[in-house]
Amino acid sequence: MNTLYEQNDMLISPYEAFYVNGSDFGDRVNAHWHYFVEIMYITQGNVRVNCDNKEYHLEAGDLILFHAGAIHTIFAPSKELRYSIIKLNLSSLHSSGSLFLNPAAIIRSARGDERAPIHLRQDEIRHLPIRDWFDRCIMELQNKDYGYDTCFYSNVSNLLIEIIRLWRKRGFPAEHTSPETENGTIQTITEYIDEHSNQPLRVEALAKMCGMSYSYFARSFRELYGRSCKDYIEFVRIRKAKDLLIYTDLDLNYISLETGFSDCSHFIRIFRQLEKTTPHQYRKSYQTNH
Questions:
Q1: Which pLDDT score is estimated for 7?
Q2: How far does Cα 184 stand from its chain's mean position?
Q3: Which of 176, 202, 233 lies at the terminal end of a domain, its last residue?
Q4: Do residues 183 and 209 touch, judged by C-beta distance below 8 A?
Q5: Count of domains in the chain?
Q6: How confident is the model at residue 8 (pLDDT cuts 50, 70, 90)?
Q7: How far apart are CA 241 and CA 157, in angstroms?
Q8: Which of 90, 102, 201, 265 is least crowded, fewest Cβ atoms below 10 Å from its Cβ?
Q9: Phi, psi of 88, deg, nearest 5
Q10: What is the pTM of this model?
């Protein structure tokens, strides 16, 4: 299975959204798998898909959801094929706080359940603004205007909730899915990191939350995300700091503390290391170009 793994740096890109034309590749996308969920929506033409040794034939208006770890191949019989893609690390999708609704946990638990089919046909979803949700996600990630990540997750959440509702109508017991807790797994710990990035975070403590030794956790995290856990924490903090630099007038001391750095000099050093510029220069450059 490792030979089919599609490398994707979820540290740099916990989500993606883009358009694909049949002419962008040959007669097929070879068999592959990845750690993120991939949702494919056909806007023109038709396509044959093999996912975990099952065949699916998709027409315009159809949608298919590839679970994390699912081996899939896409065959394009026509260059007229057009489709939209959303790729999402479920660990970056926060729970709504609802007693029953945790989309990430529900999606994970649905894999392999016949009551939760991955292929949804056009006649089942034609009443939903599926294309608009995909278009909005793609536009938000292209423009990256103020609050783009919130808008992206809002549209993705709408999409996932409607998928789950359709599964429930088929008898899938979404409301009985065991909630994910902070004592999660290596795949879900990034959600905890994102929510607590402004607080002191120790890799040893995170490993314990996953029920792993420090060395095993560190090795597994690097294998899964392509970076060390320490690097991941720093990236999340810098990503949030960049938004504060762009969209507020807060000073660097406040931003450094707000995003979880020990002090301003530590913040500046890590920012320069990751962004190849200083926070001040980054803010000034953005203001000049906008």
A1: 47
A2: 17
A3: 176
A4: yes
A5: 2
A6: low
A7: 25
A8: 265
A9: -145, 130
A10: 0.66
The structure tokens listed for 229 are 């856990």
Neighbours of 280 (CB within 10 A): 12
Residue numbers of the domain that contains 214: 189-289
Q: What is the DSSP letter of 174?
A: G
Structure tokens at 97: 């706080």
CA distance 290 to 288: 6
Q: Which candidate, 78, 84, 89, 87, places its Cα nearest to that of 62?
A: 84
271 with 264: CB under 8 angstroms?
no
| Type of residue numbered 235 | F
Say if residues 92 and 79 touch (Cβ distance below 8 Å).
no
The CATH number assigned to the domain holding 248 equals 1.10.10.60
User: Is residue 178's pLDDT more than 60?
Assistant: no
Q: Are 186 and 224 in contact (CB under 8 A)?
A: yes
- pLDDT, average across residues 106-133: 94
The pair phi, psi for residue 186, each rounded to 5°, is -60, -25
- In sequence order, which residues have a C-beta less than 8 Å from that of residue 102 and are 6 or more positions away? 95, 96, 177, 179, 180
